[in-house]
Amino acid sequence: MAKRMKAKEEQKIIKLAILAVGGQGGGVLTNWITDVAERNGYLAQATSVAGVAQRTGATIYYVEMCQDTGRRPVFSLAPAQGDIDILIAAELMEAGRAVMRGFVTPDRTTLIASAHRIAAVSEKIEPGDGRADSPTVHRNAREAASRYICFDMEKVAVEAGSVISSSLFGALAGSGALPFPRESYEETIEASGRGVKASLAAFGRAFDLTVSGERVEEVRANAAPASGQIAVEGPERLVARWNALASRAAAYPEPVRAMALAGLRKVVDYQDLAYGAAYLDRLERALALDSAEKGHALGEAAAKHVANAMCYDDILRVADLKTRTARAERIRREMKVGEANVLQVTEFFHPRVEEFCGTLPARLGRFIENRPGLARWVDRRINRGRRIRTDSLFGFGALWLIGTLRPWRRSLLRHQVEEAHLERWYALALDTAQRDYALAVEILNCRRLIKGYSDTHVRAHSKFDRVLSGLTLLEGRDDAADWLRRLRDAALKDEKGEMLDGALKTVATLEAV
């Protein structure tokens, strides 16, 4: 009897699935796992089912292994629901999808996942914030798995100069889910022959984090210090003016303060210190109508959305961002380009006559726009796709020169158009606040609808106008704020606007009743 039980245990098949997006090294990780199994006297078989395309569909890699007893086992070619011992997800949402598909079970599965996020196509195409809720995924994963190991393995790999497959391999080794010693994992990496030093560093760090149960905490970029102030460097005169503005914002009520400081930093970076003072002047118009009894919701919404409205995307902004050193460094880091390598970057532009006129002095821009024949003539000559190599002196210089026009932005047509639109929207919200506070907050929040550049910006404006057109039907209703929020949410959920059309029809029906 004991011999039969031992033979059964030796023939037990360990089933492991890996869900990875294209470019994350899922194939390399699969090969490492089969190699380490074979090093320890196991038979192993690996298969894969590729996604639709890189970065849009995850590939499922599947490994089955068991001890080599001289008898060939029958291995499966694909994972089955409720029949997985170890599941490795190369990013958080893949862990969520594995739970949804039934691959993870509480009586059996060890779930190893990286906490970082890669937005899925379904999350990107939603006009609003389409991102899935990460805390919900963590909670469901803990409930679904027998054991849940999750931390930012991408960050561990990047800090070691490696790729995420190395840190995932380390987490697998540290979990003890496979009966193999650490040394055999490291021997497998060494035998691969490429990037061994960096891979071992990422492996070791992930192994230690898994064994100790520590977590790699995410630090918000550009977060303000605990004092609420934001340290800056530069000429003393400018630093003194910045500190005066920051102190002014720091004196606001606590619910508004953090957002006001973030908004101030954004508008000053976008334009200059005078623009920052104008932002605070606008914000204080809302604070004058606000109160602690109402939680300062009006002031907080104004702090966020006025800053975004003042920092609209124009050609000057795009050119400025594309020529910043921080962007070049980020691209090199994300593409894993070494110092000895040359990185070539091609930017795509497709300007329309509207963008061209927007960068002209206001009178000249209006002169062209008010003459349809002239506008069409200009459009035929500029409305075409252009590719600019910003790694070349000419391409970088052209964009840099456009970015230097920022001091003259206030005199350009686009700025005057945006300022006029901002003031109409803001005045509408503040006037409404005096009779319906909650509705005024929702009017401010409708600024979420406006984003993007060129055609995207035009479509966003159209949705914004259509949502606010419902105000005439909602005026005077006790639930006006709730209905305006529903209209906005409908507009954010659907790119084509069909949900918004239906919601507006519903509002019209309410008015008729």
Automatic annotation (TrEMBL):
The keyword Chaperone does not apply. Residues 22-207 form the Pyruvate/ketoisovalerate oxidoreductase catalytic domain. The keyword Oxidoreductase applies. Signal peptide: none annotated. Keywords: Oxidoreductase. Residues 257-468 form the DUF6537 domain. Pfam families: DUF6537, POR. NCBIfam families: PRK08312.1 (NF006179). This is Indolepyruvate oxidoreductase subunit beta family protein. It comes from Nitratireductor rhodophyticola.
